[in-house]
Amino acid sequence: MQLTNRSKQVADTKMTWLERIYLPGIFKGMMITLSHAFKKKPTIQYPEQKRAIAPLYRGQHVLKRDDNGAERCTACGLCAVACPAEAITMIAAEREKGQEKLYREEKYASMYEINMLRCIFCGLCEEACPKEAIFLTDRIVPSTTKRKDFIYGKDKLVEKMDQRIDVSVRQTNNLAEFKKNQSFAHNKL
Ligand code: SF4
Ligand code: SF4
């Protein structure tokens, strides 16, 4: 039974002698390859060469310290709640006497991890943080072959005082004004 009239008769024509030796086809392919050899290369030798990226590129996170070197994060958990990829895990601990220089507030994150394989670099953790503690930076998360190496703990996330990371480009005036507004419960934490 014929359902449509779209069927076509396929011609089973024999290949010519030239087509059977494939040389014209090979020559045509070589010419295409050769023509590409003289064009400007679209690829670069990464990581030796790097392309310019947007100033607000969202890459590897940093957990900031304040100017005295104390960790700003108070383990409030807002970043983890805001994270759509459920990439953030932390354990809160109470600051002990004598640790005032290490942690800015009475509570701190004794463990803080971001799973970079889950993270979609949306920046919502940064927006949710009431303490200006977490920021995304223009650093690209390096590739590795082991899944466990993509779990970034405090050793990789917390800023080092001798290698401070400038995040001023991400601290816009609008955001600073919003975070000063104490009428939002978010900013009272
Ligand atoms: S950037 Fe987005 S996905 Fe990544 S940890 Fe922050 S909130 Fe989660
Ligand atoms: S929202 Fe900020 S202060 Fe709260 S746990 Fe996350 S990084 Fe720390």
Query: Strand-residue fraction?
Result: 5-15%
SS element count, helices: 6
| The CATH class of the domain at 61-188 | Alpha Beta
Series of H and E elements: HHEHEEHEEHH
Number of strands: 5
The CATH level-2 architecture of the domain at 61-188 is identified as 2-Layer Sandwich
Overall average residue pLDDT: 91
How would you explain this protein's 3D organization?
- The chain is α+β, with helices and mostly antiparallel strands.
- The protein has a domain of 128 residues: Alpha-Beta Plaits, CATH 3.30.70.3270.
- It is built from six helices and five strands; from the N terminus they run H-H-E-H-E-E-H-E-E-H-H.
- The N and C termini lie far apart (74 Å).
- The mean pLDDT is 91.
- The site of one iron/sulfur cluster (SF4) has 14 residues, from helix 4.
Name its key features.
189 residues, alpha+beta, Alpha-Beta Plaits, 3-stranded antiparallel sheet, 6 helices, elongated, binds iron/sulfur cluster
